[in-house]
Amino acid sequence: MIGKIQVGYLVSYDYELLKNSLPTVYAEADTVFLAIDKNRRTWNGEYFNIDNSFFEWLRVFDVDKKIVIYEDDFYVPEFTTMQCEIRERKLLSQKMGLGNWLIQIDCDEYFVDFKRFVADLRKYDSYIKQPLKKTIQVAAFWVILYKYTSSGILYVDKPTKAIFATNNPEYVNGRRVKAQVIYTDNLVLHESLSRTEEELRFKFENWGHNKETNKDFLNKWVKVNETNFKEFRNFYYIEPERWKKLDFFPTKDIIEIKNFIQKEKRLTLSKFFIYKKNFGQWFKFLFK
Fold this sequence. Notes:
By secondary structure, the protein is α/β, with parallel strands linked by helices.
């Protein structure tokens, strides 16, 4: 089989979440690259710490010796946070190697069925034989975990598209490249916002979208809970109306949530929906 399944993570202040994410992809990955700033600085220049116990956990977890730690200086004072993010993603992909499937996942993202996502990628292996001939990007769909409550987790009720893989990492915004998207119906739990208020405020200052975040977002996030969430609308942190409504998982356990999603099928994307998305992308890039 041509090409490897290369998985890359950007590891920073939320490194502990990798303990949830890494087990969901480890078996199917050929190599897992962890990009860590050697000076322990965020894209905004703030310092963070990674406890030595985390590296001991990695050593014990990595039974197949698949993990490669890539340390470099990823903070550039003259760059915006998004420019720093794009630069780090490109440097990481160079380590992962052209001619492979380059999959970048964040520590707070947990695939429901990564084996299935890899099988979907393999249908398009022709694109990694000549990656510079035509660039493509492959999407799955986030299930946004919005906020922990006393007895469960609030989540955005509609899956949201997100790019995870490409054959040519010419990133222009986060993981996005300027190319055709191939949509798959895979789901990924995204714990981007379900943190403590202190952690969320730190993230909003130091991530790639720090200049775009809606200033009123946190006020609503603080107010909403499992008893009143149906009284609120429009929850997205940049353009609020993109996430219109929330729903509720009656558990805080990530494994239980994954099992719930697979059993209940309430978030399943129809084959027609995926076909329509892919046809639109095919037609858009037909003559490009």
